[in-house]
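In this supplementary section we document a worked example of the pipeline. Step one takes a protein sequence of length 337 as its only input; no multiple sequence alignment statistics are reported here. Step two produces a three-dimensional model, which step three serialises into structure tokens for compact storage. The input and output of this example are shown verbatim.
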Amino acid sequence: MPVRSAPPSTPAVSRRSLCAGALLTLGLPTWAQTSYPARPIVLVVPQAAGGTNDIVGRIVAQKLGEKLSVGTVVENRPGAGGNIGTQAVAKAARDGHTLLMTISSSQAINPALYKSPGFDPVGDFTPVSMIGAVPNVLLAHPSFPARTVPELLALARSKPGELQYASAGNGTLNHLLGEMLNQMAGVQLQHVPYKGVAPALNDVLGGQLPLLFGSLPSTLQYIKSGKLRALAVSSAARSPLLPDVPSLGEFVPGYNGTLWIALFAPRGLPPAVMSRLREGMQQAMADKDMRAQLQAQGVELAGTPERQVTPDELAAVLKQDIAKWAHIVKTSGATVN
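The serialised model returned by step three reads:
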């Protein structure tokens, strides 16, 4: 969609004309009152291109643009575990033209992990829409002797501190998922951090380390080819893409470590703009084509086309996860700066 040009300046009018105009405006739909969107929407993804959040962001951006009849641009702004892009949106204009497609590790974990993340995850943002969740998978090299979670836990208890698991780095979600398993199952898996998920995954594929928590979309090909063995998914329930793989919660009651993906705007979004944006996202999230694309990426969609997650419900999930991960970060001693 072309960017609208600014309207010409309005000549002086009488008070009567102004009152009449105001009355007419009251009868207009919300989107007509705000003229939103007035230009292309920039969807900031605070992770590098090619990752799960980037893939989801591009699918959502295209469909949201269709529903709002506007162009959309996905802007990757990675760095500092997602803090750089998140900070940028927190400081952006509060007009709904700059949005944040983020994941729970950036929005809910970073505030506990970094001394100064540069943003308030609650106070600096307006929740717009929960997209869905992506489970991680507890993976093992085929040569690893434990073939099930009970066998893994028994082996870990017999060799405290000896079994190692790889992660993309200190404080990353796949590090903290292991720490949460240690705390909730009473075991001592030894964390080995790498500089990114690719080298960690490569070493587990090569048998240098036996275990790894990996996102389902990025590891499904290795599971299907037999290069990695899926012991369990990190979500509370089994994944439709791996129906024969149990959830960790089946063996460790209460364990739930999914990565959720959600859309936020800067705080102070005008109510009329928020209403129009929510309308567009509701239409997008009800779209069969978009839902099929997301599910093909391993995304477990939030809500249903008829009953979607509300902004207030998303805000409650965020606050709950901030408290949950702050406890895990504190007890594990993980820190970045």
